[in-house]
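thought: fold this chain, then report.
action: predict
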Amino acid sequence: MALQSSGQISLNDIKTELGAAATDVSLRALSNTAGFAIPDAISEFYGYSAASPKYYWDLSNDIKWDSATTKPIPTSSSNLTISLWIRPQWTATDLNLIVFDLTPSGTTSTANRLFLQYDYGLNRLIARYRSGSANFDRQWALHSNNSATGTGTSSTNYWTSSNRGNVNSDGFINLILTYNGSQSTAASAFKLYWNGSELTSTAASSNGSRSNMTLDELTFCGNDHNTGGSRIADYMFMHMWGFVFSTNAISDIYNSGTPISASDASLSDNLLFGDTSTSLPANNDPDDSGNYDFLTANSQTLVQL
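observation:
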């Protein structure tokens, strides 16, 4: 936790923030540990945090990773978990935001995809396994799951920059979607968590047939399938695994509202994708897992919190 930005700060407060790195409780020694230059002053530490800085994608268009060596969901009965942090920046206009999209590379067809979408008109999050143009999906109305989302109980309490709902201290929401391919119905196969709390009320579901797909491209903040409205959003700490998270794993990656990497959460096993970027990747740079290559940033930027 960062030190306060005004008022009285003691040397012991500073030592506590620096943790094991601080062995000498003198102002010069503490300033040196923090990397401050002479002259020394307690005021140097206003707002100081010893935690590693975090970065987020400032997006008004999509970013893509492709060429996955290990394909996610190689069969319709495979399992998957995706976790990401998102901060809505879009305005209250009718839009359908593709939160993430798993697709085959090199095609513009929408017949084969697995995606999570926010449907503005319905005020729903929709998880869909779409293969051979058949839909297998589960839909959650945000207003019917207000105890988790905090966005409001009316169908017109749309999810926007002015109504983000339950967020962490930086205004981000942790969304975790799990897919259990062994389940025969979409209502059982898909589970969605908002800041570690499951959305349990289903607005609709479809149980269309499922066939195997080759999904080797991963897009965030995608807008290829709807052109109306603003899709400005901030993203950070995106991860994907080839298994269904337990309750404990969901709690670990949510981390009480502080974004954390898969490795820091001890969740590196079966990691298919990780993006904790602190600088703009170059084309073909590997993701955290080494499974994907960076494709394009579409002129987007990374910003330090």
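thought: worth noting. The chain has two domains: 1-51, 55-304.
final: tokens above.
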